[in-house]
Amino acid sequence: MSPDSWGFYGHRLINQMAVYSLPHEMFGFFKKNILYITEHAIDPDKRRYATKHEGVRHYIDIDHWDKIPFTEVPRDFEEAIIKYCSFAYIEGKDTVSISKKIDNDSFYLTIPEKSSTWVGIDYPTFVKYWKKVIKPMYYEDEWALNMYDLDDLFLTSQFTGLKGKVVITDHFSPYGIVPYHLESMLEKLTYSFQKMDEEKLLRQLSEFGHYVADAHVPLHTTQNYNGQMTNQTGIHAFWESRIPELFAESSYDFFVGQAEYISHPREYIWDIIIKTHGHLDSVLAIEKRLSKSFPLDRQYCYDERLSQTVRIQCAEYAEAYSRAMGSMVEDQMRASIHAIGSFWYTAWVNAGQPDLSNLQKTEYIPDVILPDSKVQARAHDNE
After folding, report:
1. Closest CA to 335 of 245, 284, 268
2. Cys-Cys link to 180, which of 12, 77, 259, 342 (CB 3.0-4.6 A)?
3. Quick one: 12 and 156 in the same domain?
4. pTM above 0.90, yes or no
5. Are 54 and 215 in contact (CB under 8 A)?
6. Strand ranges across the sheet with 143-146
């Protein structure tokens, strides 16, 4: 079994219901393309097995870095990477650590084994340099600078005599980047509304909905993403896939009212992360307590899925878990729906409210996304 965030069923449903939150000026275009927007909602999950760069867009292990309200985590993506990255000097087979510090709004580097002198530059200038020179390397296998680059940056001649290179290692992204990806996606979606490229627009609308929904899953905001640190392995798919599949259609109310304009997207996104992570303790503690009152043979049953027999939480156990959490899962799905509609609406408004009435219906054609055996998915994806 390969459960996915919110499950394929959940992502399709959330995107579909978000369409009904839109104003009249947008609704016609979205309604006639609702099949496309619904079905392509699952494409980002398919890509997690095809490219190593996809997985981190779905989560952030925010408790690896800090506690609520996460003041130690920069809200600017490049500044977050700068804060937690490392520098090394490499010459031939030798690697020497480069020390870094950010102090009093300045950025400093030194190579202890080569020099006792720190070189510095004001921090805003370094951030601008990073965004211009280093940011374009993000998807490359190596982020490298030569020694002339450093001398130009720091206005020194300290490094030019060295024959090696400086390699930067990103330690931040492997723990997830979903809030930063949402901000980036909003900018791209706004641009697509401006250009009125129908196919690109629909694809970005569909996929944006996926990432927004993922940001509302408590287990997408923690290192303990599958309960592996608390002896609750399997809780990830239990919470976000099994419960919605059993109860969403029969019990949940998904009419969330009209989408709203988001005046401060970065604050809005981080508010989602903070609120979502705030549910985590309950997600884990309630299941832990409940598991002690249910015999194991009433917790797990066997079910037929895609011509396979799979071990999965029994409906009775899932119902007890859902009831003990109150309306948490429904509330997070509702919040996802409203947030998606609001992001779509905000991008459209920021693009100048273009007339969508002349855009045509685009046929849904499933993407062929082939998995790459070298791409390692997280443990809960492979159970």
Report:
1. 268
2. 77
3. no
4. yes
5. no
6. 119-122, 106-110, 94-103, 86-91, 165-169, 143-146
